[in-house]
Amino acid sequence: MTGDTIGILTGGGDVPGLNSVIKSVVYRALGMGRKVIGIRRGWEGLTHADLSGGDDPAYVWSLTRENTRTIDRSGGTVLHTSRTNPLRMTSSRVPEHMDETTLARLPRQDDVIDFTSVVVENLERLGIGTLITIGGDDTISFSSHLHQQGVPVIAIPKTMDNDVQGTEYCIGFSTAITRAKDLITRQRTTLGSHERIGIFRIFGRDSGFTALYTGYVTSTRCLIPECPFDLDHLCELLVEDKRNNPSHYSLVVASEGAVWKGQDLAEYGEADAYGHRKKVDIGHALATEVKRRTGEGTMTSDLTYDLRSGDPDSLDHMVAITFANIALDLVADGVSGRMVAIRDGSYAHVELPDPALGPRQVDVEELYNAERYRPIYSDKLGAPLLLSTV
Questions:
Q1: What is the dihedral of CA 100, 104, 105, 111, to 10 degrees?
Q2: Beta strands in 352-390 (DSSP E)
Q3: pLDDT in tens, 24-47
Q4: Which of 18, 41, 332, 339 has the fewest CB atoms within 10 Å, counting from its CB?
Q5: Are strands 153-157 and 197-202 parallel, antiparallel or unpaired?
Q6: DSSP 62-93
Q7: pLDDT, tens digit, for every residue of 341-360?
Q8: Which residue of the set 161, 264, 281, 306 is catalytic?
Q9: Whole-model pTM?
Q10: In angstroms, rounded to a whole number, what is the distance separating the alpha carbons of residues 231 and 260?
Q11: Sheet of 108-109: strands edge to edge?
């Protein structure tokens, strides 16, 4: 696959900073004499686009300085997004325009169809020489698969969970922590007014970075998936915190994937294209148990989707711009099969992560006090800015 045209897509959940990447890629690429094509709706744009009569405007958008000039002033992604997995396309999601002959030649196992060849063919039809993908574990896992098929791919990590292997930072993480801090600070007045124990549910299905760093900047207790907690001990600590607080409240931040010892947090609903089902709300489950065991009033607050909405903070904006320009440096040098990253606190690029590694997780011994359910604040001299390494 050759050509000077660059394709760019965003996959998975939205985070603040995606538009900053898109704009920076467009401006830098056009300055290099390259054309940029935006693929709408993530991988769906390359599995569902009908290119038989030319470009499909529902999925293909030529990006220019004019139509991207102001996009970095807002959050979300102008390219839209989806949780499409080309390796696991079900028959119910096959595009209507696809003929039976084409469909019959695709690898299939039961009701699951592999659309990899369709993605590659559409990239070739669009004349895309390098594809830049912005996403988390799931989006990057298929990026790695495409690279193995010989497609030049460069990935940019984004996720509020900050759990992509190979990098200490993902776009969206700083804004999530900043927003969580602001929301918790505002809700302290309500907790104090009603003298309750607050449980704040936050992103983190498999990794506790978002809860841990929110706990770090709000000086609160936090619960993470990597370390199941003792429910009775937690109740004792929260009651003690409330008793010692002049405003008569206490609070804890809980990752959505956190569980107490002896308990499995149930999942419900249909699995998405990558096999993920929703977890039962740890906030409400924990609030019920805390109230039952302590007799104290509780209040729950879901901090999830509030954290991914709106414009990025300054750090996410800066990292997004820099990641985009490093990606274009790689394009200019003819390098592919890489992911832009932060390593040891510095900008870098690494091999595309092996999907078999799963999400990056918190180093509990280094970063988390498992007895007090708090971040570890000591012994940070010489640590990178973001405290954790890969």
A1: 130
A2: 368-369, 374-375
A3: 999 999 999 999 999 999 999 999
A4: 332
A5: unpaired
A6: EE-HHHHTTGGGSSS-TT------GGGEEGGG
A7: 999 999 999 999 998 999 99
A8: 161
A9: 0.94
A10: 6
A11: 89-90, 112-113, 108-109
Taking the C-alpha atoms of residue 16 and residue 241, their distance in angstroms, rounded to an integer, is: 34
The two structure tokens encoding residue 327: 């990606």
Pairwise CA distance, residues 168 & 383, whole Å: 12
Across the range 251-256, mean pLDDT stands at 97
Q: What is the DSSP letter of 229?
A: B
For the sheet containing 128-135, what is the strand order? 60-63, 36-39, 5-10, 128-135, 153-157, 338-343, 346-351
Two tokens, residue 163: 């759990």
Single-letter code of the amino acid located at 305: Y
Residue indicated by tokens 């990006």? 63
Query: Domains along the chain?
Result: 5-171+312-357 (3.40.50.450), 173-309+363-375 (3.40.50.460)
Q: Are strands 128-135 and 36-39 parallel, antiparallel or unpaired?
A: unpaired
Residue 316 CB partners (closer than 8 Å, separation 6+): 15, 16, 17, 20, 171, 172, 173, 174, 175
